[in-house]
Amino acid sequence: MTGTAAIADAGGIAAGTAGGDRAARVLDAGGEVIACTVCDALHSVGAGPPMHGRLRCTRCGSVLLRAPRGALDSILGGALATVILVISAVFFPFLEISAKGLRSAASLVDVAFAFSEGITAPLALAVILMIVVLPVVRAAALGWALVPLRLGRPALPGAKRAFRFASRLKPWSMAEVFIIGVVVALVKIGGMATVSLGPAFWELTLIVLIVALESTSLCEKTIWRMLETRSRS
Amino acid sequence: MAHAGNPQPVLTARAAGLIGCATCGCVSRPGTAHCPRCGSVLHSRRPGSLSKVWAWWLAGLIAYVPANLFPMLESTFLGRRTDSTIVGGVVDLVHHGAYFIAGVVFFASVLIPVGKFIAVGYLAYSLRYRVQLSGHMRTLLYEVVEFIGRWSMVDVFVVAILAALVNLGFVVGFRPGPAAVFFALSVACTMVSALSLDPRLIWDAVERDGPDHG
Predict the structure, then answer these.
(1) Structural domain boundaries enclosing B36
(2) Which candidate in A59, A95, A225 is best for mutational testing of the B interface (most B CBs within 10 A)?
(3) Nearest CB to B12 within list A42, A161, A184
(4) Are B11 and B95 found together in one domain?
(5) Residues B55 and B3 in one domain
(6) What are the pLDDT digits (tens) for A22-69?
(7) Same domain for B69 and B31
């Protein structure tokens, strides 16, 4: 990735033009106009997203559009990694410890049902949602919306709805937060028991963290433009 | 008309009599109910944003009190049971010399939640009253709060993992305490609080407060 500088043709539209029907003037000026989702400033982005780097809002500096190259790959890669990690950790015990000849292992379901007594019971459901259900549902929705785009085909019916749903779920899908929880728990246990983890665990952890970081830098507005053009045709 | 801290004044969608979509940035004429690009419900500014922010903020703060008073983790070691609260757990870790993990837990369970209450409160306050921080710094604060909030949930997961995994008969075992529920509730409420804040209101306030505060 190169360049983070603002690009000249994303100039903000000046407020100086007084009188008349401003709305009409902005809309009929030709070229595409978008409003910054953070500060509402209008920008003409006639040339579309840049080839490299990103366009930034001239007022608040947040990203307006970014180069679409590779954007789909990193989102879909993240979705796939999440599904593999979550599904495998549901069916196999992903952690095992032993101390003084005693053994213990846990899968994701065991972890959620640690909250099953008394007042903590509702938390079991919330944890299952946050670390199993929502990550998988979100990955599936992203796949539905974006795989056809990646393959250069027209979008599937309901693609927009699926992508909107995936964005809504994003804050609540916490697979990568859980991974950090695993690491903290392991260090806590470290002193009192022997922990055995396969190398696959660490590889997967690394992949999920890298892709999680990449997808936080994703620009939804850019994806929406792509979805719109593909849905029409 | 004052335009904050910019060499050239910038026209906002609202000032132009248009509605900018909060999801995809597409610009529509007023009266349009749904965004033609992404289908989201269109609002020039999200209605009731500030009241929602304060309501969820307060709910989160209330839940944070029992989260600190009740035990987070009940640990049994050779038949002896010890209850530890969030802060108590950090103190224990320090006594055991595990400074790094003590730091991580302190950061995720104490600093982030408390910092978040202060940050969201400050941002919401700044919508009504003049504050020192510039619009850019407030936007940065908003983005950090939105990004970091969910990471507080890490402590709830740690408790669950310990309880599920460490159950070695008589030797050692963990059980989650009631504080885990309140802590999770508090994190969820502050997440909703931060998500309810319409960032465009921050920049409306910047414009209102004049160029010195851009």
Answers:
(1) 1-44
(2) A59
(3) A42
(4) no
(5) no
(6) 666 667 666 788 899 999 999 888 767 777 778 888 888 888 888 877
(7) no
Residues B10 and B57 in one domain: no
Does A122 contact B181 at a Cβ distance shorter than 8 Å? yes
Report how far apart the first and last C-alpha atoms of chain B are (Å, whole number): 14
> Which of A145, A167, A150, A159 has the alpha carbon at shortest distance from A216?
A167
**Gap between the Cα atoms of A54 and B180, Å rounded:** 41
A125 in reach of chain B (CB within 8 A): no
Instruction: Domain count for chain B, please give it.
Output: 2
Q: Are residues B32 and B61 in the same domain?
A: no
Successive 10-residue mean pLDDT values, chain B, 214 residues? 52 89 90 90 92 96 95 84 87 82 82 93 92 90 89 89 78 86 95 94 88 52
Contact between A207 and A81 (Cβ < 8 Å) = yes
**A-chain residues within 8 Å CB-CB of B20?**
34-37, 40, 42
Q: B52 and B28 share a domain?
A: no
Burial class from Cβ neighbours inside 10 Å (0-12, 13-18, 19+) for residue A119 reads middle
* B14: chain A residues, CB-CB within 8 Å: 40
**Interface confidence (ipTM) of the complex:** 0.84
Domain ranges of chain A: 8-66, 71-232
Extract the tokens encoding A60. Answer: 């608040």
Which residues, other chains included, contact A192 with Cβ-Cβ below 8 Å and sequence gap of 6+? A99, B166, B172
Cβ contacts of A233 within 8 Å, gap of 6 or more = A154
A23, A110, A122 ranked by CB distance to B18: nearest: A23
Edge-to-edge strands of the sheet including B73-77? B80-84, B73-77, B172-176, B167-168
Query: Which residues lie closer than 8 Å to A152 by C-beta, 6 or more apart?
Result: none
B113 with B204, same domain: the answer is yes
Q: Is there a single domain that holds both residue B66 and residue B106?
A: yes
